[in-house]
Every structure is written in structure tokens, then in C-alpha cells.
Amino acid sequence: MPLAERSITELEILHGALNNPEMCAHAYFYLRNPAYIDALPIERQADYREASAEGRRKLADLKTRIRASGFPVREDYRDAKELGELVLADFTTLIDTLFPENDVPDPLAQEAALHDAFAESRSRISVGREKEFARLDTHVACDDPPLTVLGASGLGKSALLASWAVHHRAANPTVHILEHYIGATAASTDWVAMLRRIIAEFSRHLDLAVEIPDGPDALKAAFAGILSQVAEPRIVLVIDALNQLDDSDQAPDLAWLPETLPPRVASNHVDLGRARTGRNRVAALADNDRAAVGSRRTRGADRRLSWPICEISASRARYAHCRCRADRHAALPSGLARGIAGVGRQFHARRANFLLPDCG
Predict the structure, then answer these.
(1) Would you put residue 250 in left (φ > 0), alpha (ψ -120 to 50) or beta?
(2) Which end of the chain has the smaller Cβ count within 10 Å, N or C?
């Protein structure tokens, strides 16, 4: 059947589930009992029935394919309360599987996950920049002083470094790249917390038993010390938005950075105007690249539809909540809302331990 003849609902089901076998463990289908419609007020029944014979045929065909897909299907729920109970049970099991209570990442891994999520969100919208990529590749292959990437706000410096890290990692799998995005987490703007994280990450990667001191001077010495122990072909340290470091202990002036770096350590910085480094200035994107960035930013954005869509959001709220948005304002039945809210509370509680990146 041509795509133009399929409903938006069917296209979303195909793209999000049926054509993506990897989603089999994460997608659930709930098919209500046909008698549910008969129990509704007469004036509301038309909203739940296909008006045309062709529409009913397509809906029946879609349900047949869903049942044969191998995805979990819950049949014949009687009302919103029963649907909410099914959703709560299924997603409680899924949350327990994905985020086991007895397998919580340590604080270092939690912090790394947030930086990785920040980098992914920036690299996803990056386009072009082949010239800058080549300049960064050249820099990390030599023993020059740290390189600073300069440019006006909004030119895409963070996206450049994040996407370059993806590119360089793929081309040089033996090179270890550690990325620190200042502003990605609450602790990321504090130079002490930043050095403690870098030392801990390098210690873990190099399998070193390094005690991380508390005092500022001792911390600087420990940072220089662990850099001197690099014995791999190359380690790259990427620090984004250095100008956003908290202005204490001369941190924005790089008082914490050793005067010289070991020959196997390369460093790329962004947004630094007051230090002893090489510089690479980022120019504005060309018109076609700006258009491509705009397209990537809006890809997957919300669309207005002529019927309600319910979604679970677990990103910025105190607990995951359900929203309905539609051309006509519709409220979730209380039973379903309670079930989804229960999933949200469990997900938020478990997420607090795993510190998952925002998904909103």
C-alpha cells in the first residue's frame, strides 16, 4: 500500500515498532474490547468508530499485522482503569529490566552518562566543518600546545567538538578521548570537580590506583601527575565552554592546567580567550549548512494532529507525567492517568539513581 494511503497512526507504528525489530522488548500494543464503544454515550461513539468500510478494512489489517508481529499485545481491555493497570504492570517490569535496583552506576559513570548525552545532542545537529575537522585531526596527531577553538556564541563550537569526537573515535579506535562539557551538569562548572572527574576517568581507563586529593594545589599536582603517566598512543582531552567555568582560583585563566603537557596528551578547548594556547577560529556556517542544521533540529518535532496523543515525559518534571495535546482539548480517563502516573513515578525514582540524561 502506498504511504500516502496510510494513516499517520499506522506510519508511526511502522516506523517506531513494526519495522524496527530492536523495539520488540520496548513496545507494547493494547487493543480494547469492541464492546467498550457500546458503553459510551451515543454522541461520543462516532469518535471511536471508523466511518468508512475502507477505513475499517485498513484498521483490521493493521491489527492483524500487529498480532502477527511478535510484539507484546494485550487484548480486550474493558475500560481505562484496566488499561492503566496493564500499562503499569508492563512498564514496571520493563523498568526493572532496564534499570535494575541492584545495578546502579557509580557517581563517575553517572556523570559520564550526562556528558555523553550532552555530546550526543550536539553532534546530532552538526553539519559540514570538514576544514575544522582536519585542523583538529592535525592537532591531536602532533605535540603542539593545547588548541583553543574560538568563535562567536551560537556558531556551533560545542557541536563541532562533539561531532569531531565521534568522527575521530571511529577513525582512531586506539585513541582515548575524554570529553567534559562545562554546563552539562551542575558540577561541571567547578574546576575542582572537573579535575577530580578527569583524574578519576584517566585512573579508571589507565587502570591506576590514584588517590584524588582535596586541596587545590595537591589536586593540580595530581592532575599533572596522571597526565604524565599516559602510555598509550594518544589521549585527547576535550573541554567545552571553558569561559563558563566558575571564576574562582583563576580557573578561567587556566591556573589549573600544567604549563606543559606530556607528548602523548592532546587537548582541545572551546571558548577561551585568556590563555597560553594555540587557536583555531570557527567561522559561520554557509547558508546550506545552516538550513541543514535547522532541518535536523526540527526533525522529530511535535506535530499537531486531529486526535489526542498521550505521551510519557520523564525529563524535567518531578515525576513523569502524561500530557494530552490535540486540536480539541481532551483529558485522559482517570484510570489510565493513574496507571501512567504510576509508571512515571517508578521511572523517575529509578532514574534518580541512574541519572539518565533528559529525554525531553
Answers:
(1) left
(2) N
CB distance 310 to 322 below 8 Å: yes
Task: Render pLDDT for 261-309 as a digit per residue (tens, 0 to 9).
Answer: 766 565 655 543 333 344 444 444 344 443 333 333 334 433 332 222 2
**Side chain identity at 80, as an amino acid letter?**
A
Residue 324: helix, strand or coil by DSSP?
Answer: strand
Give the number of other CB atoms < 10 A from CB of residue 321: 16
User: 187-225: per-residue pLDDT in tens?
Assistant: 999 999 999 999 999 999 888 888 899 899 999 999 988
Task: Determine the Cα–Cα distance for residues 7 and 331; give it in Å rounded to an integer.
Answer: 23
Any idea which residue has 504511504 for its cell? 3
CATH class label, 129-284: alpha beta
Domain ranges of the chain: 1-78, 129-284
Rounded Cα distance between 120 and 139, Å, is 23
Short-list 122, 147, 153, 107, CA closest to 239: 147
Residue 340's nearest CA partner among 41, 12, 30, 101 is 30
Determine the residue type at 28.
Y
Q: Output phi, psi for 262, to 5 deg.
A: -60, 155
Is the distance from CB of 151 to CB of 214 less than 8 angstroms?
no
Q: CB under 8 Å to 260, separation ≥6 — which residues?
A: 145
- Return d(Cα 155, Cα 125) in angstroms, integer: 12
- Of all helices (H) and strands (E), which one includes residue 176? strand 176-181
